[in-house]
Amino acid sequence: MLCTIISNFPLEFIFVQLIAGITAITSLKNLDRRSQLVRSALFIFLAYSISYTAVEVMQVGTLEKLNTRMFGCFAINAVLISFTYILVFVLEKIFGFVSSVSLVELSDVNNPILRELSEECPGTFQHSMQVSTLASDAAHRINANVQLVRTGALYHDIGKINNPAFFTENQHGVNPHDALNPMQSARVVIGHVIDGLKRAEKAQLPDVVKDFITQHHGTGKAKYFYNTYCNAHPGEEVDEAAFTYPGPNPQTREASILMMADAVEAASRSLKEHTVENITALVNRIIDAQIAEGLHNESTISFRDVNIIKEAFVERLRTMYHVRVSYPDLKKPAEPALPADKKPEVKTEDEATATSK
């Protein structure tokens, strides 16, 4: 505003700055690579130069009176775009804003908390990687925030670090749940959500990442232990709260995608045959059950999105569990038959003995 007031040509100044500003916003809409700053700086310089040249031609009618020093100033302004990297970091800390750059940095598997997850819970870590692949593919197809889903998927089960052996993917022949009753087992399993939230707060993860930890099970039940308890106590009134996750249910499309991907990936491991029919039936059964329970009622996801997500899951799972072609063994070529006159002389046992003497 101040520059406009003191400028000799306020309208022209506003026009040039408006064009450059629109170019900067458009080219840096999703900043997730440092190379984008260089590309954006080039675009801004071109926008400045073209808009300034256009104004001069409209006013003077010739290119002869262009001030070449202005192009140097435009180049300096374009280079200053590199300070965006620093300003984004400052704004994130002040206002709690999370940029794509921060999400990319958080998704680095060398981060301390993810490295600990891979060391203490290798099965859970692999599960999280698979869920990340499923969820990000589905998010891409429905135009959701892919990087946010990918990062949230990597951190959604970090609470399992506290009790890795109590989760199937980390077990090696010994199941600690055999020594517990279903209600105690449910308490341990459900506790990984609360434990994960505590770890996220300690690591100062952004709120948008914490939401994936608390919402990836919503207010669903630990069904295995719930069903086991009900079958062992027929006719008894069951305290459902003891088998229910604390929630809340998914509030965004990204959280809904993660909930679906998490359940589908875990259940797909139990399939004996990963045929298209079996995978399709599994995906439909799990997602339809979640919708019937109302777990996605608070999310902005649509039925059209759900159908696209189902298709994405089926295609991706088919790729993950594709049947490998068995490689044939290399057969040794048969030795060529020798002519009759060159065949080795076969001696009887008596002849061989006599010859040796």
Detailed description of the structure:
The relative contact order is 0.07. This protein is an all-alpha fold and 357 residues long. Helix content is 61%, strand content 0%. It has helices spanning 2-6, 10-27, 35-60, 68-79, 84-95, 100-106, 112-120, 122-141, 146-155, 182-202, 207-215, 223-232, 253-268, 276-292, 303-320, 349-356.
Short description:
The chain is mainly α and 357 residues long.
Secondary structure layout plus pairing:
Layout: H1 2-6, H2 10-27, H3 35-60, H4 68-79, H5 84-95, H6 100-106, H7 112-120, H8 122-141, H9 146-155, H10 182-202, H11 207-215, H12 223-232, H13 253-268, H14 276-292, H15 303-320, H16 349-356
Helix pairs in contact: 2-3, 3-4, 7-8, 8-9, 8-13, 8-15, 9-11, 9-13, 10-11, 10-12, 13-14, 14-15
Provide key terms for this protein.
mainly alpha; disordered C terminus; 357 residues; single chain
